[in-house]
Amino acid sequence: MRIATWNVNSIRSRIDRVVSWIDRNDVDVLAIQETKCREDQFPGLELASLGYEFAHVGVNQWNGVAIISRVGLEDVERSFSVDQPQFEDLLEPRAIGATCGGVRMWSLYVPNGRTLDHEHYAYKLEWLARLRESGEQWLAKDPAAQIALTGDWNIAPQDEDVWDMAVFEGKTHVSPAERAAFSAIVDTGYADVVRPHTPGPGVYTYWDYTQLSFPKKKGMRIDFVLGSPALAERVQGAWIDREERKGKGASDHAPVVVDLAD
Question: Which of 94, 156, 241, 253 to pair with 204, CA 20 to 30 A apart?
């Protein structure tokens, strides 16, 4: 079984690339972030022509997440628990879960944080705390559960995950609090199942569109698949499709792929 995650940065703009990529790479389940469309605008007919079902949550031209699958799509949840009244005005369509071929897939688009003194940064940390609590509960309920927490985490957990730490000094994505929030989820039992197969430094999943970041190799590793213990045991290989970042109309993120044993 092959699962993947990809921040496509507008599904309507890149549906042809998505359809071509999943067909070419024989992908069974794809978690998508930044769909940037309402649910009624999601281009599902193109995916259905290849035998994929989909579940999507989105409200406007920002955020939005989806899961597409050709191995079943059951028990869809369009959020995990983020019951925090102080952030009610900031809550956005950033999480969707579904069971696909026995794997509980989550497509996650973690808040950016913007700046260290911005309310969105506090929202980001609280969002991650709620994800950790939910993930811990899922494993406590069923230690043998096959769970994949996939998506754009907007965190570079290690120094080698950015092209130059000096550039990011005092900024989001690399702050101690964000890294601690990421580590807390790992500590509950979820392993980064991609890094062992794609060691760094210089291995990235995102390159900004500006200042020739991609050809200059000025990137970040911020897209991850964190697997529960039972899922991690099934991982046979993983890779980042850097080639898909090339060419006209590419997303600024590359797909991240994980192969699971049957």
Answer: 94
